[in-house]
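Reviewer 2 asked us to include a model.

Predict the structure of this chain.
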Amino acid sequence: MFDSIFDAIEEWMRDLLTGMVTSNLTTMFTDVNEKTGEIATQVGMTPQGWNSSIYNMVQSLSNSVIVPIAGIIITMVLCYELISMLTERNNLHDVDTWMFFKYFFKMWVAVFLVSNTWTITMAVFDVGQSVVNSAAGTISGSTAIDISSFTSTISTTMESMELGELFVLMLETFILSFCMKVMSVLIMVIMFGRMIEIYLYTSVAPIPFATMSNREWGQMGTNYFRGLFALAFQAFLMMVCVGIYAALVASIELTDNVHSALFGVAAYTIILCFSLLKTGSLSKQIFNTH
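Predicted model (structure tokens):
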């Protein structure tokens, strides 16, 4: 009588633990597959395509608030340029007609850059999007982990486990599922953070563009332009990270050693998050910006 009761309790515990393990695995892989699948879509968007409302707001702020400030800076820079040009010519004793043509050309370039700042800035991200789209066609492999085959494999393995092993496996999958949720949120934060950084960076574009016509002040504008390319090509580095992750996930062998397979997936996801975090600083190093 007691044996049958204990057997029933054991069977109930086994079903409970097995269901919890399966639920944890399903939730874990669903979150990871969803977030990693969104990376290629997110990084391939231009600022206008990502959120048109934010794009229009930033463009309006840039044109109405920052451009007038850039006009003041242009005036200061051109005055400084004119004074420097005259003093270098021995206080107008060595006047050359060509110097005035050069000055008016610099003036035209400065006004042209500020007037077309937004177009030039968005053109940089259009180039970055073109590179990402080309990379998406070259990088092969799916980032999604086949949960159906993994669940069938682990279900067969769990049938031969004792209750203690099932309880340990349940704890492992619970902890890993929680960690995967954190990694999924981190991936989303990285994607959204990059786009917000782009909007913030482009909102003040007219100010550094206003300095590019002067040799001394132009370092500000040159460094800003390098920063634009760094942000645009960061998306390409993210695509490379996704391609590496897809290759690593494809190499996972769903064998009877469930623990190694689970921790392998977790390790690869952590590596993906760490690599995505490093793409920003790496891109800035490549373009020598700060």
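Residues 2-43 form the longest helix (42 residues). Residues 2-286 form one domain. We have added this to the supplementary material.
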